């Protein structure tokens, strides 16, 4: 990651990488369940710099200095976290409202209707302004490299551009970009597009999302789009729209050496659930979110057990569902529905000491998740729509024994890269049920062959390559602009 050295780096995201909470024995921190944080944090540790984010934990305010800064990670202090405090009204309108009731369902085809409230939009605009001011306050030079993250900040690139015209602004959209018809129902579509086009580079996970974005611009703005070079020019500002599939940091030898053996993980997890040593497990790890296909996954398990009753009592799904955005009605209703359906399926197949589905509806730290990955025969990612999905890449990274089968939704960005997974359409219960059966009966040799290839892909296309490619493109771009300015 040579491109990352020498430049001043500022990251902006809504979610902070470390959340400080007050517990009975003082302040402790937790790592949030967020694909964005999983990917960007190792890059920040490698480059240092400043990460500006919304302060969210109960103890967050007590650990910062008078400029609202704290060095993180706790204990090793490699970069600065600058926290922005939002009022309850701002958080309601900007985060819960416009970002998560408006843009989140707008961009994911998951059949949840987006809600657009004028007051949410006002709060979203205001909060984007506040973050733009914070970028200026934190910047020590006139041309920092600012990495703007995700749908919480569509207006930020143009706001930074007004204040720091020489900044290199790399914006990454971590969720899908829908087709122009879907996007165009948004009352503020032109403001959002113009905001994003303040970026030097605008990144998506896949070519398909880039194409959707450029078509959306074509339909809604008087801009010059060059499909061949994948650029958009408006008000003399040209933005490169490019795909950069995000990934994870491949675990180091030291990290791996600290992992308990696969045998120990297997017995620890089975022991905790009161299951026998030969019991087969599939694992699902998600935020408790309606885009993740958790209901469809449960239906697939149910159908598999119905078709292959000899597996009743011998197989279970362990589903981690980390509570997320639970203040929103849509999320509350979804959580209730999942609890209900799990109850029904367990009543149907369960017996004393056995459940078909273990729903662990609480936050799990990374070590606990790694233990589950290493203990399971199968990992199920059945998102109805997902920008990339990093759970599948983490599962692959955790399996240094080259065993375990990945079942992956074709509607996750990762399906384009992870060809050796069993790819399913989660809307098709029968297909997913058959894939699950195939996974739990797959011979070890075939598992090894598939897993070895998957591991090569994830190791080579890791998150440093993601960041490195974006920064290399930015450097080339700046150089060209400078040369053209001289002509
Ligand atoms: C997705 C989004 C991230 C977000 C994460 C967790 O991965 O792309 O921006 O951080 O979900 O959601 P939350 O609302 O808890 O931050």
TrEMBL record:
Keywords: Membrane, Transmembrane, Transmembrane helix. Belongs to the glycosyltransferase 20 family. This is Trehalose-6-phosphate synthase. It comes from Pelomonas parva. The chain holds residues 253 to 739 of 745 of the full protein.
């Amino acid at each position: 990651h040579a491109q990352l050295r020498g430049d001043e780096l500022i990251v902006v995201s809504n979610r902070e990488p470390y959340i400080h909470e007050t517990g009975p024995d003082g302040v402790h921190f937790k790592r949030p369940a967020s694909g964005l944080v999983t990917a960007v944090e190792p890059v920040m540790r490698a480059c240092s710099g400043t990460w500006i984010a919304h302060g969210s934990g109960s103890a967050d305010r007590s650990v910062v200095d008078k400029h609202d800064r704290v060095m993180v990670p706790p204990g090793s202090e490699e970069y600065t976290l600058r926290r922005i405090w939002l009022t309850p009204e701002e958080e309601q309108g900007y985060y819960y409202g416009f970002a998560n009731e408006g843009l989140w369902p707008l961009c994911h085809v998951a059949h949840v209707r987006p809600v657009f409230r004028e007051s949410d939009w006002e709060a979203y605009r205001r909060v984007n302004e506040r973050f733009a001011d914070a970028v200026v306050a934190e910047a020590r030079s006139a041309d920092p490299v600012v990495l703007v993250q995700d749908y919480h900040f569509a207006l930020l690139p143009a706001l930074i551009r007004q204040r720091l015209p020489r900044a290199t602004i790399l914006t990454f959209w971590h969720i899908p970009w829908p087709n122009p018809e879907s996007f165009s129902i948004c009352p503020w579509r032109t403001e959002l597009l113009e905001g994003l086009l303040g970026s030097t580079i605008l990144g998506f996970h896949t070519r398909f999302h880039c194409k959707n974005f450029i078509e959306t611009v074509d339909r809604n703005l008087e801009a010059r789009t060059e499909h061949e070079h994948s650029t958009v020019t408006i008000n003399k500002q040209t933005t490169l729209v490019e795909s950069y599939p995000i990934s994870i940091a491949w675990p180091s030898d030291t990290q791996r050496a600290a992992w308990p053996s696969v045998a120990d993980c297997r017995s620890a997890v089975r022991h905790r659930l009161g299951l026998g040593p030969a019991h087969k497990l599939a694992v699902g790890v998600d935020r408790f979110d309606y885009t993740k296909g958790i209901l469809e996954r449960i239906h697939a398990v149910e159908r598999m057990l119905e078709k292959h009753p000899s597996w009743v009592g011998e197989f279970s799904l362990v589903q981690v569902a980390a509570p997320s955005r639970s203040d929103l009605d849509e999320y509350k209703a979804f959580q209730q529905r999942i609890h209900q359906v799990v109850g029904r399926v367990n009543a149907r197949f369960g017996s004393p000491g056995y459940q078909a589905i273990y729903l662990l509806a609480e936050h799990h730290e990374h070590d606990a998740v790694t233990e589950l990955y290493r203990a399971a025969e199968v990992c199920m990612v059945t998102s109805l729509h997902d920008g990339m999905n990093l759970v599948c890449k983490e599962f692959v990274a955790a399996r240094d024994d080259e065993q375990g089968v990945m079942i992956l939704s074709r509607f996750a960005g990762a399906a384009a890269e992870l060809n050796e997974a069993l790819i399913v359409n989660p809307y098709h219960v029968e297909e997913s049920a058959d894939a699950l059966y195939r996974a739990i009966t797959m011979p070890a040799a075939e598992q090894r062959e598939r897993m070895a290839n998957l591991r090569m892909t994830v190791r080579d296309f890791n998150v440093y390559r993601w960041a490195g490619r974006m920064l290399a493109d930015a450097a080339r771009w700046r150089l060209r602009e400078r040369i053209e300015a001289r002509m």
